[in-house]
Amino acid sequence: MGATWTGAALLDQSVFRAAAARAQSTGAPTQLFDIEKVAEGVFAAIARPAALINCNAAIFVRSTDLLVVDTHSKPSAVAALVAQIKKDITPKPVRYIVNSHFHWDHTQGNPTYKKFAPRADIVASVATRRLLADNGPQRLKESVEQTQKSLEEMKAKATSASGSDKAYYQRMVAEMTAYLKEMQGYAPELPNITVDRTLVLQDPAHDLHIAFRGRAHTAGDVAVFCPQKRVLATGDALHGFLPYIADAYPAEWPRTLYDWAQFEFQHVIGGHAAVQHSKDRLYHMAGYLEEITDAVRKAKQAGRSVAQAQQTITPATLASLNRNGYGDFVAASIARYYPPGPNPTPAGILSEGVKTNVAHTYTALDRA
């Protein structure tokens, strides 16, 4: 964005035009995020449901510029959010971009931010930069291949479905087709500043602490903490969905969350779903991770297979999902912010989520 947003638009108006054209041609919504003011000078861009999910973004308005946490799954999402920030928040330029972790739906917008803001720095943990460098191209290839496979399945379902189900599958087809076109020729952009524990950015508006405290959802999760505004941005290490454990360290993840709990925050901008306005869900997620990890470890030590463990470890057997309304909260968040398919039920959402968590935890227990 250089000195002004106008300069950025002149630099790359084609990105905006392409994003708008894609949205119009596919019937996809042109507004991909809901902007929520979390505190003075702090905003959350809450991602609306999409076939190729976007992450939320945390936007910290500094005295002369912005820090944005996470960059979504595709360039057009960045273009859409840039336009919303300019319209609804501020014309100040982006100075820092933080990748909370390496997953595709949080980092594939990096190159587009750099087009708009050539002087912006991308900040991540040492581990996240390494994972992006080592795994980024392969993960993109897998994402494209999986999307192509899902696209064919959605086309078949759209042919035989009717009513609201047909409309759902048609939307998925349109969005997946647009994603595949958009990612042709994509090249990743790596962070150029790395953090091994804490980087503090001081500013008259407020300070920002970019903190790595241990492995969790991935090997390199960082949180961004604003002490003056009591806000914590957490990526996917703490959000409104069930945890995703495929790349995780479930035995260590709760300890990382408890370390983050030492920050004096009141508001949490997670990687997905709504802003949380207390520390409660941090303890609820940590408790769920501890319980499911312990249950899977015992099943594995007893010689049970993944399928056998999934039969005995269910939402009904996990106390952490059945106290404090945590299970109901997660199911409602997924139903609202992630398109899980036609006619989902809370029980079905939790059942499938726990099955997936059991399978991933079974493997992750052996991760060094």
Explain what you see.
With 368 residues, the chain is of the alpha/beta class. It has two domains: 5-129 and 188-279, Metallo-beta-lactamase, Chain A, CATH 3.60.15.10; 281-364, no CATH class. It has helices at 5-11, 13-26, 75-88, 104-107, 110-116, 126-160, 163-182, 253-260, 280-301, 306-312, 319-322, 326-337, 346-364, and strands at residues 33-39, 42-47, 57-61, 66-69, 94-98, 121-125, 193-195, 198-201, 208-212, 222-226, 231-235, 267-270. The chain is globular.
The assigned structural class equals alpha/beta
Helix content: 40-55%
Characterize the main sheet.
Answer: 7 strands, mixed
The CATH topology label of the largest domain is Metallo-beta-lactamase, Chain A
**Broad shape:** globular
Read across the widest sheet, the strand sequence of neighbours is 1-2-3-4-5-6-7
How many angstroms separate the termini? 41 Å
Q: What is the strand content?
A: 15-25%
Based on CA atoms alone, the radius of gyration comes out at 20 Å
- What does the average pLDDT come to? 90
CATH architecture of the largest domain: 4-Layer Sandwich
The top level CATH class name of the largest domain: Alpha Beta
The number of helical elements comes to 13
